[in-house]
Structure formats: C-alpha cells, structure tokens
C-alpha cells in the first residue's frame, strides 16, 4: 500500500568478466497472493560504473513514470571463487595450514567480519526429472548463501549431469542456510525447477 516504498535491502552479485555486463532490474506490483503486475524495468551498464566507490543512481523505469534509487558499488571480489575440481583452492596442504592459523583461537578478534568461508564441491546429480519432450533435461545448479549466489554451467540433454565444480563463499552469518537448487534451462523462458536441498551451516 505504498507509492514510495523503501526496501533498504543489500544484495551481492558476483560479476565475472565472461558474463554479460548489464544488470537487469524489474519492479513488480502485487495485488494479492495470486495477481502480480510488472510496473517497469531498467538496466545498469556495470562496465560504465567507476570501481571501488559507491555509485548513487536514480534510474527511470521504462513504461512507467517512476524512478528507482539505488546504491551500486563495483569492487574486486574477495573470498569468492569458482574453479574446476582438479584445481581445488584448498587442495594444497600448505594453504590448509595457513587457513588453520588464520582461524585459530588466538586470531579470533583480528578481523571480526572474517567469520570463515564455505567451500562446496558440486559433483553431480542422479536421476533428475525429465523436463523436455525428448525425455531429457538441460540442468544447471544454483548455490545461494545469504544474498550470495553462484551457479554451475548447464549440462545439456542429461538426467545424470556431472558438473565437478568447486565454489567458495565467505561466511557473513553462521546461522545462514546453504540452498542448492537444480533447474532446467529453457531458452528464453524462466528455468524449470527440478529439485532443492537446504543445508544449515551449523550442521556442517
């Protein structure tokens, strides 16, 4: 019930140089639980923004006489990585020893925000649902931790895909839950949901 909503939400997107450079934003209106209406859209060219500073942007919405006020900061990625299984970031014993020292009890208060990190190896899925008429699916896997999100590549025409990727996240809240969702890529349409698992960090 507001024409001037304030959300005050922060989201972290991991931008890699091989991805597209446009940030797409949509604003929706919800009448009730069932009816939703797209109010407007806008785009931000990430490559045009100055780095290492917070950019205050007032973005006019297309097809709607309104604007969106956003703060966008482009900064180097720290603590986040995607790699192949054969070059796992924690595979080196000397690196593991450095990590153990970094998070030892005597260093607990050196950096209060550096709680730790989570490394996830996404190996494969077995017996997925067939989402296409051909009896196959085009699955990819999305990992979400808090407002951080990373995803694998798509394995086409396969119900038993192997991704063999290693994902590393910085942990901001020990009470967060890692959500792993498998989708079927469907061209220009929204992906189809194939399955999901939720893992509380405290259970790891």
From TrEMBL:
Calcium in keyword set: yes
Topological category with respect to the lipid bilayer: Multi-pass membrane protein
InterPro entries, alphabetized: C2_dom, C2_domain_sf
KW Calcium (keyword) present: yes
GO cellular component, as recorded: synaptic vesicle membrane
Domain C2: 1-59, 93-204
Pfam family, any one: C2
Keyword tags: Calcium, Membrane, Metal-binding, Repeat, Transmembrane, Transmembrane helix
UniProt-annotated location(s): Membrane
One MF annotation (Gene Ontology) recorded for this entry: calcium ion binding
GO BP annotations, alphabetical order: regulation of neurotransmitter secretion
The family this protein is said to belong to: Belongs to the MCTP family.
Record protein name field: MCTP2 protein
